[in-house]
Amino acid sequence: YLLCLLGGLLPFARVSYAAGSGPSVPGSPSLVVYRPKFVERSTQDGAFVISTGQEAELLLYGENFTNETTLWLTNKLSCFEGEPGGELHSLGQLHVSSEDGKRAKITFPALNILGEYHFCLSDIEASQSAVLQGNGEDPTLKLVIADGGSSSESPLLPLPANIVLLLVLILLSGTFSGLNLGLMSLDPTTLKLVMESGSGRQKIYAKLIYRVRRYGNYLLCTLLLGNVLVNNTLTILLDSVLGSGLYAVIASTVAIVIFGEIVPQAICSRHALTIGAYTIWLTYIFMALTFPLSFPISLILHFILGKEIGAVYTRNELLGLLKVTEDHHGIGKDEVQIISGALKFKEKTAEDVMTNFEYVYCLDIQSVLDFRTIREIYDSGFSRIPVYEETKSNIVAGVV
């Protein structure tokens, strides 16, 4: 009777053993380590975390993998489907990626379960032959499924619309960055100078820009707020499109640095007047949109820093400007000397303009005004010639 009773219990004992309560059978699939193809994050003890609502792909490394091997998830230290409170979820069959059966991968749709799960492997799709992998304490053989939040929801816009919106945001980011450098470099004094002495088209451009540039703090706050708003929106949108925070940060950083900062600032630093005039309508729009925030901040800046004066040049700075821009302003050397002399005239004394006596061209009172003498006077370049008698120090008259 006892032998019959034991014989009747043997099948149940075999099922429990195969269900993962003991070591795997030699030749059966065995998982050593795994990792997600796209790692989002991990727990402090090293277990990988994936989010609900997203398709995932796992890369598996172990022994005896076949294309019929099935991967299971269990929230208990058992692969027995009838375990009280236990859950057993099939992720599907593996796709072996090496001839020796040591590498495989599996792609499975979005999961709507939460918690910490262990892996089970079976040679067939039936859960009765599934074997628990590891002892349940190794964090490298655990998978944590966390709430993905809004990632499980369908995107608000289709992919083509998101791409168009991304391009618009990158364009706006570059525009704000370029205008911030270009418009703020055109101080009111420079714009007034262009309005007075520039070409016809330059005068029109300068007049358009001056209307907003005279409110320097307000314009600065508007451009910076617009740039920050666009860049943050760009990062959030990239996160929803790429589905990974890390890739969204990398993509947004590259896009903003290259197309939102370097390229537009390089262009606007050289063509600030033209670009500022053609985009003045965009500046007006954002000045109106950001008015509730940017205008009060501009008043605070005005109160603390005072009124913006712009570029003001002293006499010495004007002289230096003439010399520095000598190769570009198209003014001849004689004209530069005349302008420089006029700027220095107020500081000149009689001693400064006097010529050393030994270098003065003089005529002896006994000189004959023949052709040769007149030629010498002409070649000397002087319009007034002193006349001396006997010695140069004895000036008795002058020739004008």
UniProtKB/TrEMBL annotation:
<dbReference type="GO" id="GO:0005886">
    <property type="term" value="C:plasma membrane"/>
</dbReference>
<dbReference type="GO" id="GO:0022857">
    <property type="term" value="F:transmembrane transporter activity"/>
</dbReference>
<keyword id="KW-0732">Signal</keyword>
<protein>
    <submittedName>
        <fullName>Metal transporter CNNM4</fullName>
    </submittedName>
</protein>
<dbReference type="InterPro" id="IPR002550">
    <property type="entry name" value="CNNM"/>
</dbReference>
<feature type="domain" description="CNNM transmembrane">
    <location>
        <begin position="155"/>
        <end position="335"/>
    </location>
</feature>
<keyword id="KW-1133">Transmembrane helix</keyword>
<feature type="transmembrane region" description="Helical">
    <location>
        <begin position="244"/>
        <end position="263"/>
    </location>
</feature>
<keyword id="KW-0812">Transmembrane</keyword>
<feature type="transmembrane region" description="Helical">
    <location>
        <begin position="163"/>
        <end position="183"/>
    </location>
</feature>
<dbReference type="GO" id="GO:0010960">
    <property type="term" value="P:magnesium ion homeostasis"/>
</dbReference>
<keyword id="KW-0472">Membrane</keyword>
<dbReference type="InterPro" id="IPR046342">
    <property type="entry name" value="CBS_dom_sf"/>
</dbReference>
<feature type="transmembrane region" description="Helical">
    <location>
        <begin position="217"/>
        <end position="238"/>
    </location>
</feature>
<feature type="transmembrane region" description="Helical">
    <location>
        <begin position="275"/>
        <end position="305"/>
    </location>
</feature>
<feature type="signal peptide">
    <location>
        <begin position="1"/>
        <end position="18"/>
    </location>
</feature>
<dbReference type="InterPro" id="IPR045095">
    <property type="entry name" value="ACDP"/>
</dbReference>
<dbReference type="Pfam" id="PF01595">
    <property type="entry name" value="CNNM"/>
</dbReference>
